[in-house]
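**User:**
Everyone, produce one record:

**Assistant:**
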Amino acid sequence: RRERQRFVDKNGRCNVQHGNLGGETSRYLSDLFTTLVDLKWRWNLLIFLLTYTVAWLVMASMWWGIAYLRGDLHQAHDDTYSPCVANVYNFPSAFLFFIETEATIGYGHRYITERCPEGIVLFLFQSLLGSVVDAFLIGCMFIKMSQPKKRAETLMFSRAAVISQRDGKLCLMFRVGNLRNSHMVSAQIRCKLIKSRQTPEGEFLPLDQCELDVGFGTGADQLFLVSPLTICHEINSESPFFCLSQRSLRSEQFEIVVILEGIVETTGMTCQARTSYTEDEVLWGHRFLPVMSLEDGFFRVDYSQFHATFEVPTPPYSVKE
């Protein structure tokens, strides 16, 4: 079957684009910090470089303008003359003085004299503006680098989900795993069934979301994710798959979105990993191969068998049948 459009990709990216916002785009500017953090890295780096470059050129021009208006540029080599900023002869020297002041380098060759009140005021303004720009941009870069999105890439989901019997009950199952030794604290998993349907009143819901029970009542949705786990959804009379059989699975169109959330142990930040399974990725009458084995004093996980399944005898009928 030709692959159809997904609501959520296998890597967790949501295929949703917002258009025709009109005047609502101003809301992005009202939350400028979050907008910058959400931008891609290339745009963040471009804004970072442009902001500092423009700020440096503007402030250096202001220092050069003070020297030009006071006539310091023409009398800078006169030992008896007291300029606003010593040893500022042209724009490059004014730019170097600004960089020395902003970066607190202070080579000692250029400095402000006490006979320049406008220079003192500009120096105070430069210090305040530099602190604000540094706090905003460096804070933005730090938050972006510390985002737990990369941590989600070390959380694995099986490529396919399976339907087979467990404890005499028909169940929908998939597997999750953590590749790192650091744990996910308070890990919790949720599942959403996305399927189009029509209400009895005739209203068509193109992407209706329905919750799949993966152990809310028993606490099975709270995971101790130190080794790969098989998540189980029991298909019963309250399940959306109550009427699903092996034959009807071929003609169904649905998508199961899996959301795994937890706190990164090393940073304390909340991390979320997502994936999805379409009807083509649900295998009827299959079971996952074991991946755990007992070695000399420890348990070993064989991730080469993480996605592997094998067929087991399973009735082709739905739970309702």
The chain has two domains: 24-146, 150-311. The chain has a mean pLDDT of 86.
